[in-house]
Every structure is written in C-alpha cells, then in structure tokens.
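Good morning,

Both structures are done.
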Amino acid sequence: MDSVDHDALLEGCLRPFRAGGRQITVSAAAQQDDGASCRPPVLVPGRAVLVVDGVFLLRARLRELWTVAIYLKASPAECLERARHRDRPVLGSVAEVERRYLTRTVPLPQRCRA
C-alpha cells in the first residue's frame, strides 16, 4: 500500500481543483488510518495554487496532472532522519519507520522515473 490514496487524491482534490471547483478534500492518508478521511472539505479561493508534496506523486499515473514538478534531492541519511521524526507518530516506532523507509522509500526514485 502506498502512503497516499491515489483515488481519493484524484477524485477529492486534484480533479475538482483543476476543474475550478470551490472546495476540495485534502487528506494524505498515511499507512494507517489516522482519521484523514474524516477531514472537512477545504474552500478554494478564487486565485489559488495547489502544492502537493510526496515522492509517490511522481508516478506515471499522476504525472500528466502536474503543471510543474520539482524533485528535491537529499541524501538518504537526511531523508531517513526526517522520516524518523515525521512518521514515528503514525507508524508507532522508529524501527517501523526505518523498515519501511529502507525497503520502500529509498528505492522509489528509480521506480518513479521509469
């Protein structure tokens, strides 16, 4: 399972935003249910820019939706250190963060560019 529910992202956020919708659903679902699906819709101002963050968002399935894509390169050690702080509350332990990071996230940029 990815860290983002691509169908929810497409239907609740990206497609409505691109169509000029006045509200979108913003919920980046983590690896486990953190209540993201219960968040209320967000009102979109008349002039808005949508910024979406995440390495899984560079996959071919979503590539055509981006006007601009920026890939920030950081060392694996720096990314892991950030993940330890960011993802521990969701994943429950530093060991689980490291396991997922080292088996899924580190190899991901090579898969996304394909």
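Second structure follows.
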Amino acid sequence: WVIGGLVAHLVTIGSIGFVAASVVLLVCVARGYGSTRPARDALIAVALALPVWLIFAKVIGVSLPLCPVLGL
C-alpha cells in the first residue's frame, strides 16, 4: 500500500494536483499501516496537504499545481 501510494503520487501529481495526489498517498499509507477508515483518513490528509501546499506555494514560492484540470 505504501509503495503503491508513492507511485500513484508520482504519476498523478501533474494531472490531478499536489493536494489530491497527496490525499491519495496519505490514504494509501494509512491503509498500509492498518487503517480501515478511508473517509476519515482522507479528511485528515486534506487537513495536512492543503497547509503544506499553501506553505510551499505562497510562503516559499515553489510552484506546485493545486488542480491543473481547473487551471489552478
């Protein structure tokens, strides 16, 4: 699960954006460590990934795609 999540993150970050790809990664990692509550894990992942994106994009100035499909 952990390796699959990492591969999914690397493959999808350009198409679905940093936050969504990170949610997939974190949900897969939680599943790999035995979690059986993917909805809760996804909410926690959004709560972690969105502030990280904000720090990188707005504070540090690193360009990470938020959602390329929507042009953000």
